[in-house]
Amino acid sequence: QVQLVESGGGFVQPGGSLRPSCAASGTIFSINYMGWYRQAPGKQRELVAGISSGGWSNYADSVKGRFSISRDNAKNTVYLQMNSLKPEDTAVYYCVVNTDRVYWGQGTQVTVSS
To answer: Strand locations in the chain, DSSP E?
Structure first.
């Protein structure tokens, strides 16, 4: 079993930055894919960014150039550096980890507002 603990969400003004992280623990042999999804009120959950074990990353068009995903394999942790935040980035952000199966984090709230 794998547990995911997210942290680093919060409230920020437009143009600000946040860096949520997600640490995986438990019985882990190897982690293939790590990523972040988000879900805003009344909207479907959508992929924000993902990163493979080899470091290949992909991003939603809406966050390209503003967000950067990274991972620390020694710590089984994935990070999402979010810069130039906009009100439309407001959502609950969920990390996802693919090992023996897909695990989801509990979600961390990100609110961007003036």
So the answer is: 2-7, 10-12, 21-26, 33-39, 46-51, 57-59, 67-72, 77-82, 91-98, 102-104, 108-112
Query: What's the token pair of residue 56?
Result: 């290949």
Q: What is the reported pLDDT for 76?
A: 95
Task: Quote the CA–CA distance of 96 and 22 in Å, as a whole number.
Answer: 9
Q: In this model, does residue 23 exceed pLDDT 90?
A: yes
Contact indicator for 109, 39 with CB cutoff of 8 Å: no
- Cα–Cα distance measured from residue 54 to residue 28, given in angstroms and rounded to the nearest whole number: 17
pLDDT in tens, 80-114: 999 999 999 999 999 999 998 999 999 999 999 99
Give the pLDDT of residue 39.
98
